C-alpha cells in the first residue's frame, strides 16, 4: 500500500507570496491532518479534515487554510507569507471513521514539504 | 491548554546501556503515541497506548502508560546505534480519534559505539 505523499517536497518563496501544499493520504484513509514543525516551536497541529469538512483546528492565524476533496486528498494554503512560516509542513492520514477510545487508529505521516520563506 | 513535556531533551548513551525517556502531559487523555524521527525524515509511528497500565514492546523499545500519573515512559534496552533518532510522544486531547495531536518537544537520542 502506498504511503502518504506530499508535493512539492521543497519550496522557496518570498515574503508576501502565497503557497499551496498538497497531500495524498493512504488509500482508504478519510482523515487528513496538517502539522507545522520548526526548531523553535516543535510540532504544532494546524487542522484536520474529515469527509471534506474541517473537524479540528489548531491555534494558527487565518492566513493558514486548507481543504479536502472528495477523494480525501487535501491541500493547505498559506497566504501573505512571513519569514516565520519557514518550516517543515507534515501531512498525516488515518482511517478515523467511527473510532473510539479502544481504537488503535494511528496517524501515518508523509515525508513533508520544506518551505523556506526569504 | 494541553501541555506535553518530555525529558530529557537530549540523551547521549553508550551502546549496550539502558535508559528511559519520560513524557508528562497536563490533561486527561487515554490515548498516547510514540513516534520516531530520523534526521531529515518524517515521523514513524512506534506505539499507540490506549489505557492505564498499557505496555507495548517492539525490539529494544518498551512503552508504558500511567493515565493516573499522566505519564508515559519509553524504555530503551541495550541500546544500539540504529536507535539514534529523535523520539516524540504525542497526546490526543479529545481521547478519541487521535487526529489532533499535541506533541512533546522531542528527545534526541544519540547512541555511541
C-alpha Rg of chain A (nearest Å): 14 Å
| DSSP E strands of chain B, number | 11
State the major sheet of chain B.
6 strands, mixed
List the helices and strands of chain B in order: EEEEEEEEEEE
Portion of residues in beta strands of chain B equals over 45%
Q: Termini distance of chain B?
A: 41 Å
How many β-strand stretches of chain A? 11
Residue fraction in strands of chain A: over 45%
SSE-based structural type of chain A: mainly beta
| Inertia-based shape of chain B | globular
Main sheet properties of chain A: 7 strands, mixed
Most extensive chain-chain interface: A-B, 30 and 27 residues
- Measured distance between first and last alpha carbons of chain A: 37 Å
Report the oligomer.
heterodimer
SS element count, helices of chain A: 0
Helix content of chain A: under 10%
Broad shape of chain A: globular
Rg for CA atoms of chain B = 13 Å
Task: Provide a count of the helices of chain B.
Answer: 0
Q: Give the proportion of residues in helices of chain B.
A: under 10%
Secondary-structure blueprint of this entry?
The complex is a heterodimer of chains A (118) and B (113).
Chain A: E1 5-7, E2 10-13, E3 19-24, E4 31-38, E5 42-50, E6 53-57, E7 64-68, E8 74-78, E9 87-94, E10 108-109, E11 113-117
Parallel strand pairs in A: 2-11
Antiparallel strand pairs in A: 1-3, 3-8, 4-5, 4-9, 5-6, 7-8, 9-10, 9-11
Chain B: E1 4-7, E2 10-14, E3 19-25, E4 32-37, E5 43-49, E6 55-58, E7 61-66, E8 71-76, E9 85-91, E10 102-103, E11 107-112
Parallel strand pairs in B: 2-11
Antiparallel strand pairs in B: 1-3, 3-8, 4-5, 4-9, 6-7, 7-8, 9-10, 9-11
Amino acid at each position: 500500500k502506498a504511503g502518504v505523499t506530499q508535493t512539492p517536497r521543497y519550496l522557496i518563496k518570498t515574503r508576501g507570496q502565497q503557497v499551496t501544499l498538497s497531500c495524498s493520504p493512504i488509500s482508504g484513509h478519510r482523515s487528513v491532518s496538517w502539522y507545522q514543525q520548526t526548531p523553535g516551536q516543535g510540532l504544532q497541529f494546524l487542522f484536520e479534515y474529515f469527509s471534506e469538512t474541517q473537524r479540528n483546528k489548531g491555534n494558527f492565524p487565518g492566513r493558514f487554510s486548507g481543504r479536502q476533496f472528495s477523494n480525501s486528498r487535501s491541500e493547505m494554503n498559506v497566504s501573505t507569507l512571513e519569514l516565520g512560516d519557514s518550516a517543515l509542513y507534515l501531512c498525516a492520514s488515518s482511517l478515523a471513521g467511527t473510532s473510539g477510545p479502544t481504537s488503535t487508529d494511528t496517524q501515518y505521516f508523509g515525508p513533508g514539504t520544506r518551505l523556506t520563506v526569504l | 491548554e494541553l501541555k506535553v513535556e518530555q525529558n530529557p531533551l537530549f540523551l547521549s548513551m553508550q551502546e549496550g546501556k539502558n535508559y528511559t525517556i519520560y513524557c508528562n502531559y497536563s490533561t486527561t487523555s487515554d490515548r498516547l503515541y510514540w513516534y520516531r524521527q530520523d534526521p531529515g525524515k518524517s515521523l514513524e509511528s512506534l506505539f499507540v497506548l490506549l489505557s492505564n497500565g498499557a505496555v507495548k514492546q517492539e525490539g529494544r523499545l518498551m512503552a508504558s502508560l500511567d493515565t493516573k500519573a499522566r505519564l508515559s515512559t519509553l524504555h530503551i534496552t541495550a541500546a544500539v546505534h540504529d536507535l539514534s533518532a529523535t523520539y516524540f510522544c504525542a497526546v490526543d486531547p479529545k481521547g478519541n480519534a487521535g487526529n489532533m495531536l499535541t506533541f512533546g518537544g522531542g528527545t534526541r537520542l544519540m547512541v555511541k559505539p
